[in-house]
Amino acid sequence: MLRALVANADQSTTQLGQKLGLSQPATWRRMRRLQDAGIIAGRRLVLDAEKVGFGVTVFLGVKLATKGRVSLEDFERAIGAIPEVQTVDHVLGLYDYRLRVVARDLADFERVLRRRIMTMPGVGDVEANVLLSEERRPGPI
Amino acid sequence: MLDDVDRRLLRLLQADPATSVPDLAGAAGLTAARITRRLDRLRQDRIIQGSHAIINWPALGYAVSVSLRITLDKTVARAFDEFIEAARAVAEVIEIQTFLGRVDVRLSLIAKDLADYQRIYREQVLTLPHIADIEALMTVATVKSDESLPL
């Protein structure tokens, strides 16, 4: 059921039940249980980003310059409030944070980077990698 | 191409892909029939491509999440293709991205615990073909995860 829903979350419980050989009520109950257990965290709409005007996705590694003097909570709140910043992960390793940023084009990305991200207190070394292709895998289920 | 109403519909659907047509109609101030027509067109133009369920891996016991940044040996002509094909066979790899930059490929890897991660890393990641360099970033906390586009 998880595999089917990861591939396509638009199908009705009737369609899903037919695929799995379950009745519609049984399918609904199982789906409900997966949601209640927090295993299904939600649904993500898949849009063609380029067709709606977002041609560039960049992954940024950010190192904080003055650790200990900058409040991580303040940094996280401020960076998370930027609409172009889609994901923020606090990481352990070469960088402190990993960001996924979308922009209309490279000029737009430069604007977001220079005006919104680099101006944030505590931001030190930043590494940018421009996304060329992406593939999501079903994972170990 | 997209007008304000389209953008509004896409914003609502990004926030909750399960929003019903009557709810969309109410929020956008249009009739249900007009909403249905617009949604059909957005799907036909492949602007809306569907939706996926999001799995909460920690709830299934996968507590560890690591971002592996990989540089490939570009002297080998088919390095990218062969690497990606082999990476697809690792069940714990949930994302594969290729980049223009210092990093060539990134793998998002999940594991049950550190011992499990170490086993996957040694037996299934380090054995992938054409790796020149590899760096690992371990996720401590996910602060924001919202892949909505700022339409």
Topology:
The complex is a heterodimer of chains A (141) and B (151).
Chain A: H1 2-7, H2 13-20, H3 24-36, E1 40-47, E2 56-64, H4 72-80, E3 85-92, E4 97-103, H5 106-117, E5 123-136
Antiparallel strand pairs in A: 2-4, 2-5, 3-4
Helix pairs in contact in A: 2-3
Chain B: H1 4-15, H2 21-28, H3 32-44, E1 48-55, E2 64-72, H4 79-88, E3 93-100, E4 105-111, H5 114-125, E5 131-145
Antiparallel strand pairs in B: 2-4, 2-5, 3-4
Helix pairs in contact in B: 2-3
Description:
- The complex is a heterodimer of chains A (141) and B (151).
- Chain A has 141 residues and is an alpha+beta fold.
- Chain A folds into 2 domains: 2-36, no CATH class; 56-130, 2-Layer Sandwich (Alpha-Beta Plaits).
- Chain A is 34% helix and 33% strand.
- Chain A is built from 5 helices and 5 strands, in the order αααββαββαβ.
- Chain A has helices at 2-7, 13-20, 24-36, 72-80, 106-117; strands spanning 40-47, 56-64, 85-92, 97-103, 123-136.
- The longest helix of chain A is centred in the N-terminal third of the chain and has 13 residues, at 24-36.
- Chain B is α+β, with helices and mostly antiparallel strands and 151 residues long.
- Chain B folds into 2 domains: 4-44, Arc Repressor Mutant, subunit A (Orthogonal Bundle), CATH 1.10.10; 57-138, Alpha-Beta Plaits.
- In chain B, 36% of the residues lie in helices and 31% in strands.
- In chain B, helix 2 (21-28) packs across helix 3 (32-44).
- Chain B is elongated and about 60 Å long.
- The two termini of chain B are 13 Å apart.
- The interface between A and B is large, with 61 and 60 residues.
> What best-fitting shape of chain A do the alpha-carbon axes yield?
elongated
Distance between the termini of chain B: 13 Å
Percent range of helical residues of chain A: 25-40%
Count of beta strands of chain A = 5
CATH topology of the largest domain in chain B: Alpha-Beta Plaits
In what order do the strands lie side by side in the largest sheet of chain A? 3-4-2-5
CATH topology of the largest domain in chain A: Alpha-Beta Plaits
Report the β-strand fraction of chain B as a percent range: 25-35%
Report Rg of chain A: 20 Å
Number of domains of chain B: 2
Quaternary structure state of the chains depicted: heterodimer
The overall pLDDT average of chain B reads 95
Biggest β-sheet strands, sense, barrel of chain A? 4 strands, antiparallel
Number of domains of chain A: 2
Give the overall pLDDT of chain A as a whole number.
Answer: 93
- Unreliable stretches of chain B: none
Order of helices and strands of chain B: HHHEEHEEHE
User: What's the CATH C level of the largest domain in chain B?
Assistant: Alpha Beta
The poorly predicted ranges of chain A are none
